[in-house]
Structures are given as structure tokens and as C-alpha cells.
Amino acid sequence: MFAHVPIDWNITTKLTTCTETIKIFIKRYFIHGNENTGHHLWRIAGGGGIPISTLESEAIRIVSKYNGTISIYAMDKRSVGESDLLECPISVFLNFSYCSSYIKENEYRLKHNTFTNMARDLQYVLKVASNRQHLKSNQRVILLGSSQGTYLLQRYLHLIENEKEIDGVILDSVVPTDFIDLVKHDKYVNYMFLDLFLRCAQDKEGCANKFEDQNPLRAAYTYKINEEIQGNLSCLSSLNTTSIEIGIKISYLFFPLVMQLIPSLIYRINRCNAQDKIVLQHFLKHTASSSLFPYNRPGYSMLVALNNDLTELWSTRDHNDERLSCEYVKGMSDNTFMAMQLMSNVYCPIQRSGVLGYNTDQYYETYPILKIQIPVLVLHGMLHMYKIRKKILFVNAGDMDETLPLPVARHFHKKYSSLNSNLTYIEMPRTGHTAIDASPMIDQDISCGWLLVISFILSPTFQPDRSCLRKISPIDFAGTTTNSQELSMIYFGTYNMWD
Question: pTM of the predicted model, to two decimals?
């Protein structure tokens, strides 16, 4: 279904003085016969420009597994997906100058494509699709946002302080509203690389014993030094690549289901025998840049992502601070073991141009304080649960979140707990960014994160069942599980990760 919303909501009246509207796309997943009985779970995608089509298989799987006790709603944010799309004909990531005329033509929409207007869209759509007057007393309306979606939901909470439209909010990999530094993304990713290799060193039989002196971290910098010393004779040079390019590719591998391949990849670069070169060539081909990032996939809007990110998520510092120059950001990214290089190569030059962005409002960098209590569930590589009389906030955080590392989530916990005294905080082991998906369990078709979410929703007292925390899969560095062997075949062209 579609809903029509104004391009600009009036802040005072929550209505609008703008007559021009845009379409917002909403989709519902439910079991026939249960459409009027199940709880309503609203799913808000992460990332500024990611469409809900990326969540479809997840929604179908969850609704089917729980036999209709939960219906899932998903809403494409304004200017994304099947909502009235706002995206350059050629991705702004690939050719910013080519998009200049398109940006100029759509300047009005971009200036009003704010987080606050998106939150008002959500507020309006919820009243239409999940109106409390049409629901039974035992039906709950819960909002679930991941990563950047948590930032949007916090903005939504600012708007509903005196309303009772929802029963709870779930924040998965929470973005603190007062500490946002996308500019440091590569630095954070690098921290998790070091964390991963420490875990490899602790796994004596499955990982450390593959490396000289059982020191995997030495191998991580050895191939970089060899590239400098050996020049054209280095392993990477013989493959027509560089350590920077390898670092970019590795950064996109960092996900709990794939990251176990990284130590063996480094091992093969250092050894570099004939078989290793075949494996490395396969890896380079499979991870070509076009397959790593969704530049032109249907429904994605990188223009919207940049517009919002550069305004509210780029940095907590003064944007004119010389320490945030593109040269500084580039140096920070280069001085890593793995880095996407996206902030230095794409974001920073566009941010410096001043073409994109909008004026922030009174909600920027502030936490919502609810006057009418609402249960809120927050997931983020750790688990927090906030309880405010009748409202509960549940926070889940993964201890290997490469985008929002553990100290960031702990900062959120510390700041928000001062506003919410009843808070339960759980750190999930071996869990990466977006904990609901990044917490796989052995021989299970559902993640621990999703079990926590569902048990929270179905519990009469909003108490999650934490028993799954003990069952989160260990990191299979050795490559003995079927899943690891299949991933090795995909990325390395062989079932054997190491030989």
C-alpha cells in the first residue's frame, strides 16, 4: 500500500503548509487468517538508502516460523525503494559531478528529506495502518529498527512523548544520538580486525598453530611490510593488487558468518605458493568492487544516504575542523589493516563541497524523554532493556560490532540509563553489527538476536529469554563446519580454507 505525505511537515502543528506530497510505500507480511489477531512488528531498515526489499526474506521467514502470531510491517523511508525514489541516474558514489544537475533540480526535496520529516512520516503511517482503535487489547505494536534505523526511531520517540500509539521499540545496534562519528568508520573496522586476530591467537588448535610462532598478528603486518620491501616482486604485486585494495575487500568480509576466512586469507598472502595464488585470484575476482557495494541496485538511494549522513552522522566535531580534512581522513584510513576507504574517497570530498545536507533542528544530538511510558527494545551487539513503568527499552549489543564497537554501545547505555533507571544490559558474545542477524547459533535456523526479539514481544512482562546467549556459534577459524567450507568455496574456490 501507499500513503501520501507532505514533503515538509509543519513542526508546530504536525500538519503542513506544503501542498506537494510524495508517496511512502508500506508492505505487510502475515499468515492468512491471522491478519486481525497477531502482534504488529514494524521493521525499519538500517542504512540511509536501503530499501525494505532487502528485508523481505527475513520477514517471510519470521512470520512463517511463528505461525502468524506476529505480522511484520515494513516501510520504505521517503525517497527510498518503492517510495518516490530520489537517486541520481548514475550513482553519486561513482560520479558525484555527474549528479550535480540532478541534485540542483531536487534541492527542495533534499533539504526536507530530514530524519525528523521521516519520523513524522512514520508517525502518520502508524496511525493509519496500526491504529490502536482497530486493534484488540492484547495486540501489541512494536517498532524494530537496525543500525541507522535506531537513530530514526529515537527521533520518532521525540515526537510521541504524549501519545500511546505503540507498545514498544526495539533498537538493534543502536546509534547514540549525541556521539556520531561516521568519519571514524575505518578506524572502528580496524579495531575489530585486531580483535579478530586476538581471538585467532587464543584459538591455539584452530587458528594460531597455522602461523609462525603461533603469532597471527605478526602475519597481518608482515604482508604489508613485504609489499613495501619487495615492491614489484611482492605477492600482491604479482596478482596486480595492493594491500590497500585487499584491505577494502577484507572490510566487506567482516561479518560473523564470513569473518573466519580473514586469518586464512592473510596466511595465504604470506605463503603465496602456486595454489595460494589461484585462491587469491579467485578471491579478487569474486570480491570485485561492483559486487561489494550496491551502487545501482534497484531501490537503493545513495544520494539520500549521503544527504542524511553528512548532516547528522558525519561527525560530532565542527565540520570545519582541520583534523577532519580529507587528507586527515585518508591518512586515518590508510593506516589500518582493513578499511572500506569510503569515508575518505567518497564521503569527505562530497561533504567538503557543501552541496548536500540540511539544517538540523532541536532534536539533534538529544535523547528522547518519554512522558507517556512505552516499552522499547534496543538491540546492538549488546542487550539493553529499559523499563519505564509501563514502557520497556531492551538493548542488545554484539561484542564484535565493527560499525558501532562495544564502547559506543556502552556510552549509549551510560547516557540513557541516567534518563531511564530500569535498564537491563546484555553483551552478546561473538556478535557483529545488527545483532538480530549477526548472532548465528549452531544447527539453528534462527539467530539468537531474533529469539531475544520474539521472546521480548511475546512475554507478558517484556522479559526476553536469554538462554540462547550460550548457544551463539563460536568462530570457526579451522574451517571444519559445513557453513565455513561452503563460504570457503564461494570466496576461495576450494572447500579447504588453509591448504
Answer: 0.92
